[in-house]
Structures are given as C-alpha cells and as structure tokens.
Amino acid sequence: SSYVQIDGVGKVYPSPRGDVVALQDINLDIASGEFVSIVGPSGCGKSTLLKCLAGLEPISSGSAVVAGKHLAGPPDSLGMVFQRDVLLDWRTILDNVLLQAEFLRLRRSDLKGRAAQLLQRFGLGGYEERYPWELSGGMRQRASICRALLCDPELLLMDEPFGALDAMTRDDLNLELTRIWQGSAKTVLFITHSITEAVYLSDRVVMMSRGPGRIVDVIDIDLPRP
Ligand code: ADP
Ligand code: ADP
C-alpha cells in the first residue's frame, strides 16, 4: 500500500523578479517500508520536494497524500534530518535527542530509555552527557538521526544528511544506516548527490533534473543488502 502519494505536484516560489518554478508535475508513490533516494543536480527541487512533504512549504498544484491524509502542515509521524545538524550547543547529546519529545509535546521521562538505546545503537553510548561541540561531524549527524528517530516516526525525511561529511565518515554512516534501516518498517526518503550512496541504500532511486524540477527516471534497485 502507498504511504506517500504524490500526484501532479507543482511548486512555485513567488518572487518579485519573476516566479521560480521549483517542481513541475511530480508523480511518485512510495510504499510503506520503502527506502527511496532522490538524486539530481543542485537546484532541481530535491529539497523543495522534501520540504513540501514535511509540511514546511505548501504545494502550488496537484495533490500530496501522506498516510492517507492530504498534507496540511507536517504529517503526524515525521522525523527529519538536514545537511547541517540542528543540535543545540548548550544542551547535552541526550537532551538534544530528547528535544524531539518536546517538539511533539510528549513526556521526556517516557522517552529517556529509548533515547539512550538509540544513542547506543548509533555508536554514541557513553556520550549522553557530552555536548555537541565535543563530537565530530559524523557523530553529530548520528545524534541528529537519533533525534529524528526518537518518537518512532513512520516517515523519515533526510536532506543530504552526510553532505557535509568526509568520504570515510559517509561510508561508515551508510553501513550503519543500512543495518539499522533493515527490518524496520520506516518509510524513508533520502536526498543525496551521490548515485553510489543512493544505489547502495535504496529500493528505488528517483532521478530529477532541472528546468524546471521534474522526475526524469525511477530505477528499481535489486541488490543483496550487506
Ligand atoms: P535542490 O535541493 O535540488 O538543490 P531546491 O529545492 O533547493 O533544489 O531549489 C529548487 C529551485 O527553487 C531552485 O531554483 C532554487 O533557487 C529555488 N528556491 C528554493 N527555495 C526557494 C525560496 N525559498 N524562494 C525562492 N526560490 C527558491
Ligand atoms: P539549507 O537548505 O540552507 O542547508 P536546511 O536544509 O538545513 O537549510 O534547513 C531547511 C529549512 O528548514 C531551514 O529554513 C531551517 O530553518 C528549517 N529547519 C531546520 N531544522 C528544522 C527542524 N528540526 N524542524 C523544522 N524546520 C527546520
């Protein structure tokens, strides 16, 4: 069954120097539990598509349905990871992960155990009481992913989460991500510049192109998982 249904979606950013058409006639169905990557050149609308699905930007035309509901603001069960981590430097790593509970108005005390478990799973056991500025870029992004996963979101949106990291750290994170994602029912939409990364991680790769942002190809990946 489709978890995300995007039908003829267009997005126009109004601008005094002429409107910018960021997305044109996007059609994409994503099944529950599927891992889909989006690749394409800078400016082809990848971030815009994610922001629309996150309810951070309204769509201009067409229809977008997530979990059976037309989008009007953020979906009920959403986690999001950005290129630059969004950790607060004056909070410990554990408190940063628990921010997600505060965003969703859930009780922190109910989620402390899960936060610690996630940190452990992502190789950050023992770093609960450290501060973000004490961690490497890769560790900070892992903490950001823990935050996004804290409340067990059905939909995980990642906008080039490793874009700012060096190649070796990226490879490590991809391995971990694959292992963790395997067997979980999370539906994931993942933006990357790297086709290798996309092929390695995904069930399907969506290729976008500019002029203006549209889907030019969708490739099924049928590789054994590591
Ligand atoms: P990508 O993520 O693929 O780099 P974006 O979604 O960021 O692409 O951008 C798609 C197009 O929309 C680009 O032409 C970009 O300049 C434009 N754009 C993005 N955000 C805005 C905005 N807030 N206002 C106006 N134009 C925007
Ligand atoms: P950029 O495209 O400039 O690198 P990001 O992708 O990091 O920016 O963030 C995209 C937008 O989403 C920004 O305007 C930022 O303020 C906003 N944003 C960042 N983190 C969150 C969050 N956790 N929840 C909602 N919005 C966020």
Word description of this protein:
The mean pLDDT is 90. Helix 2 runs parallel beside helix 4. The protein contains six helices and ten strands; from the N terminus they run E-E-E-H-E-E-E-H-H-H-E-H-E-H-E-E. The longest helix is centred in the last third of the chain and has 15 residues. Strands 6-7-8-3-9-10 form a six-stranded mixed sheet, sandwiched between helices. The radius of gyration is 17 Å and the shape is globular. It is of the alpha/beta class. It binds adenosine-5'-diphosphate (2 copies). One adenosine-5'-diphosphate binds next to strand 2 and helix 1. One adenosine-5'-diphosphate (ADP) binds next to strand 2 and helix 1. This is ABC transporter ATP-binding protein. Keywords: ATP-binding, Nucleotide-binding, Transport. One of its GO terms (molecular function) is ATP hydrolysis activity. InterPro entries: AAA+_ATPase (IPR003593), ABC_transporter-like_ATP-bd (IPR003439), ABC_transporter-like_CS (IPR017871), ABC_transporter_ATP-bind (IPR050166), P-loop_NTPase (IPR027417). Belongs to the ABC transporter superfamily.
Summarize the structure.
By secondary structure, this protein is an alpha/beta fold. Helix content is 30%, strand content 28%.
Overall 3D form: globular
Structural class: alpha/beta
Calculate the mean pLDDT score and round it: 90
| Percent of residues in β-strands | 25-35%
> What is the terminal-to-terminal distance?
26 Å
- Distinct helical segment count: 6
User: What is the topology, as strand order, of the major beta sheet?
Assistant: 6-7-8-3-9-10
The number of strands is: 10
Helix content: 25-40%
What small molecules does the structure contain? adenosine-5'-diphosphate
Radius of gyration (CA) equals 17 Å
